Amino acid sequence: MPDTKSNNEPDTHALLTRIADALDRLAPPPAVDNDLNAAEAFVWHADGAVLEPIRKIARVDIALLKGIDHQRSILLDNTQRFAAGHPANNALLWGARGGGKSSLVKAVHGAINAENPGSLILVEIHREDIPSLPKLLSILRGSGKRVILFCDDLSFDTSDTTYKSLKAVLEGGIEGRPENVIFYATSNRRHLMPRDMIENERSTSINPAEAVEEKVSLSDRFGLWLGFHNTDQDTYFEMIKGYVAAYSLDVSEEQWRAEAVEWSMTRGSRSGRVAWQFIQDLAGRLGQSLG
């Protein structure tokens, strides 16, 4: 009996496979776990809503941060209160480049967790991911963890309106900032915006006072303003002396002082960052580890 199956009849198995593949593409991706017990620090990736665990945090011991005793005391006290479940303020650390702003945030986090391991989570959010803050806060709100939400080098330019969403998140939204989250930011600018941007608003607006108030009011959402200023030579030497002792570098004080002066002159500044860069260079030349 002749085969009645047409050669043009579609292959049923291949057709079903293509349908299954199409359905897989339409299905939403599996939910990300975002387990805050996986580490004590994370980086937020808005694309995918992923909290990436950081196994080793790049930071220095809080005792090695010299010349910022006042700022260190205030931020440490504020963070300790927060970690204990008491009211605390958002903090803006502003001022000179390389002054130790981000180093202090990470060092304070490390000091508190050294006393009470796992008590405090550090989550870094990049400047460009600020619009995703509501999504991130919804994750952190229900985590049961005390979280420092940290944005390094935060600032806004003339045409940038992202600051409005940040203002709402920090204080003005219906839900407000979750009680288990505090926001720390660093910036070279006290008001997070360039002076010429503020002056331009004043000169071109119908109501200059209101326009400027709108721009600078973001910084008012931070209860703590901690200023960081240029480092004098004695403080610069104290920083390096602390590092030399902490890492047991085999070098005389006379030698490192002379080299440290030359190093700062080639950089055109003295700061905590310059001191640390000098120590890295010195340790490398001595063949010693900073681990």
Overview of this structure, please?
This protein has helices at about 10-25, 70-85, 100-115, 135-140, 160-170, 195-205, 210-215, 235-245, 255-265, 270-285; strands spanning about 40-45, 50-55, 90-95, 120-125, 145-150, 180-185, 225-230. The chain is α/β, with parallel strands linked by helices. It folds into two domains: about 40-230, 3-Layer(aba) Sandwich (Rossmann fold); about 235-285. The termini are far apart.
Keywords:
single chain, seven-stranded mixed β-sheet, Rossmann fold, 44% helix, 10 helices, alpha/beta, 291 residues
Short characterization:
With 291 residues, this protein is an alpha/beta fold. The protein has 10 helices and 7 strands. The model has no long low-confidence stretch (mean pLDDT 83).
Give the number of helices. Answer: 10
Number of domains: 2
Instruction: Please bin the fraction of helical residues.
Output: 40-55%
Query: What is the arithmetic mean of pLDDT?
Result: 83
Mind telling me the CATH class of the largest domain?
Alpha Beta
Going by CATH, what is the homologous superfamily of the largest domain?
P-loop containing nucleotide triphosphate hydrolases
Please give the largest β-sheet: 7 strands, mixed
The value of Rg in angstroms is 26 Å
CATH topology heading of the largest domain: Rossmann fold
Report the uncertain regions.
Answer: none
Number of strands: 7
